[in-house]
Amino acid sequence: SAIGRTETAVNNLNPVFGVKFKVDYHFEEIQRLKFALFDEDKCSSQLYEHDFLGEFICTLGVIVSNKKLHRPLTLANGKPAGKGTITITALELSDNRIITLTLCGRKLDKKDFFGKSDPYLEFHKQGDDGKWMLVHRTEVIKNTLDPVWKPFTVPLISLCNGDVDRSIKVLCYDYDNDGGHDFIGEFQTTVTKMSEAQNSLEFECINPKKQKKKKSYKNSGVIILKSCKVNQNTQIPIDIQYTLSLFIVGIDFTASNGNPREPSSLHYINPLGSNEYLSAILAVGQIIQDYDTDKMFPALGFGAQLPPDWKVSHEFAINFDPTNPFCQGVEGIAQAYSNCLPHIRFYGPTNFSPIITHVARFASQALQQETAAQYFTLLIITDGVISDMDETRHAIVQAAKLPMSIIIIGVGNADFAAMEFLDGDSSVLRSYTGEEAVRDIVQFVPFRDFRNAPKETLAKSVLAELPQQVTQYFKQRNLSPSNTASE
């Protein structure tokens, strides 16, 4: 279904569109978006009447985790659509203040040979890179040098990233049907300056080129701010989401999974390709990879004996490179998993605590470096039989104080009572010392319940508790969202 359409940029191969789209972002869902560009030829609202220029398809998760995406446009068959590219910028509406501005103009420069001018305003904010970015474009007022624009309301976060002292540049143009809009003048201000004005506030509209040429130049007219109101928008429920820095995958290679050379094993080395673990890795991996910008995942195994000395390990790199355990995307994890299966011996016991403590060390280091935005999620794929319940409970209680969460995917048909207990949904998890977890950080999902369900259903279940776990962590540390938006 269509979310909306931008305005038409006339006679322009490098358009910057002013229309914005507000999309509800559901972290735990796969929300596919298509951006299609057309050349408007006729006065028709039917898209097939216009020339198709190219499209770009992605998920909302990719946009959120990148914040700014620049991608080539493709034709419907996936081939490049010439040299055309699209840039998409996303901003989270975590600040629910809105600003309403009412403006008019006086004695603007006459630009049209016949008649006066057709003025409109553009509001630009300054990015962290110093570049100006279009935020809002007013309507055009025809044939006047004293325009009165309709009041308009935008989220404060759109206008100035919620920073009331950030520079805003206002440009005034004379609209031309052929797209060659004439520049009238500009001025700069801030929300602070605009809101401090008790009555109307006047800004001289300056054309720097004219100012250089003429000594007697005063201005190209005056823009008058008649009113500026900043309010809380009670309609937007604040639901702060975070881009997660790092997913670590942990795979259970203990003997309870069965001999990988037999079809009954959950790790069956299947000549036809798949087994229960591989299915879970691919299904869950596709969901999480949208939230990691570089798509590099450390993948660790536990409970196996490793060559050449056949010592048992509870935290080994499945690509056998301990200095660089990273796999490229979900395909990289699947590849490393399939490659390591024939070279290891399944053993035991099924100890969860070493891998949890391993990730907790990274989370703890990130805290000491004060990289507040770093949040770690350990994804454990297991048959659910657990040997070190006391140590695991203790490790989870300690991990709850750190920027990390644990998602456990149970494969096979075992009794998952122990996993449900660790999930802590029904009661607070306690360590064997009696210490309570400061927050619930475990989400358990039995893969068998979703084996044949749509990907979206599994995604919802896997990621259901993660946003509030992350939010709760940052709230407990009294960190504001602006300190925690991670690239």
TrEMBL record:
It is found in: Cell junction, Focal adhesion; Cell membrane; Cytoplasm; Nucleus. It holds the Pfam family Copine. Gene3D superfamilies: C2 domain. One of its GO terms (cellular component) is plasma membrane. InterPro entries: C2_dom, C2_domain_sf, C2B_Copine, Copine, Copine_C, VWF_A, vWFA_dom_sf. Keywords: Calcium, Cell junction, Cell membrane, Cytoplasm, Membrane, Metal-binding, Nucleus, Phosphoprotein, Repeat. SUPFAM superfamilies: C2 domain (Calcium/lipid-binding domain, CaLB), vWA-like. The keyword Phosphoprotein applies. Residues 1-73, 80-205 form the C2 domain. GO terms for molecular function: calcium-dependent phospholipid binding; metal ion binding. GO terms for biological process: cellular response to calcium ion. PROSITE patterns: C2. Its main location: other. Calcium-dependent phospholipid-binding protein that plays a role in ERBB2-mediated tumor cell migration in response to growth factor heregulin stimulation. Belongs to the copine family. PANTHER family: COPINE, COPINE-2. Monomer. Interacts with ERBB2 (preferentially with the tyrosine phosphorylated form); this interaction occurs at the cell membrane and is increased in a growth factor heregulin-dependent manner. Interacts with SHC1; this interaction may mediate the binding of CPNE3 with ERBB2. Interacts with RACK1. This is Copine-3. It comes from Esox lucius (Northern pike).
